[in-house]
Amino acid sequence: MSTTATDRPKLLRPAPGCFVRQEVDNIAWLDMGDYLLVVDALEQTALEAEVMESIAATTGGKPVGVVINTHTHHDHVALNDAFQRRFGAQVVNAQTHVIPPAGLVWTADERRVEAHALPGCHTDGDLIVWLPRERLLFTGDIFGWGLIPWDHGLDRPRLDHIVATYERLAALEPTTVVPGHGPLCTVAELRRWITYVRALHTDVRQLCHEDAIDRRTLDTSMLVPPEDMRDWWRFVQWKHGDCVAKIVHAVSRGRL
């Protein structure tokens, strides 16, 4: 897909001492007093110099002490080695650490950063990062701007688990949600996705049980995107169609 204005990098400050380089892939750094904590590490090693310059310019050259990967897909870990090489940073993800039920916690002055394991929505090693004082939530690819995040075959337990996870995240009442990719959003988008996917499941089931509909030819044209979601990032272009395809595949095989 061609680059649009939405995909060009922006440096955002969702809370004091919290910076997000928002693009197709997002990276964030949080001021922890004597050091910085980075959330996710992009997919392009070629961005190392640009990212390091932005970090230094916004934080006065503080060292990066911790890098949290919300999961270990290639588009979230490319700069891990650079942070380790430059600063000796500790890399934290579900492969390097056992995440206890209460999560991992870093504190500095009035800032508290929590990392919690919420596996099974996008990967088996999903983490979220939560700043309760700032009400700032990093979801990684659990939230994908309208996308069903699981790519390995949908069924009733999996969809129920994803919806329950979204409900748990929404219950935190975040002011700002930073997804793994694309624009920042709010708790409203989390809640809207829950109603969207439930309605989509109902509509697909109804169409698939009508004798006149050939399940093999059921496509997005029969299930148009909701009007209030059309301006969601890349939703109309392909995400809605992907959701339809995943649910049709599961329903037509008796899994949903």
Describe the model.
This protein has 256 residues and is an alpha/beta fold. It is 30% helix and 21% strand. The protein has a single domain, classed as Ribonuclease Z/Hydroxyacylglutathione hydrolase-like (Metallo-beta-lactamase, Chain A, 4-Layer Sandwich). The chain contains five helices and eleven strands, in the order E-E-E-E-H-E-H-E-E-E-E-E-H-E-H-H. A six-stranded mixed β-sheet has the order 1-2-3-4-5-6. Strands 7-8-9-10-11 form a five-stranded mixed β-sheet, with no helix packed on it. Strand 10, helix 3 (156-171) and strand 11 form a beta-alpha-beta unit. Helix 3 runs antiparallel to helix 4 (187-208). 38% of the residues are buried.
Label this structure with key terms:
Metallo-beta-lactamase, Chain A, single chain, alpha/beta, 21% strand, six-stranded mixed beta sheet, 30% helix
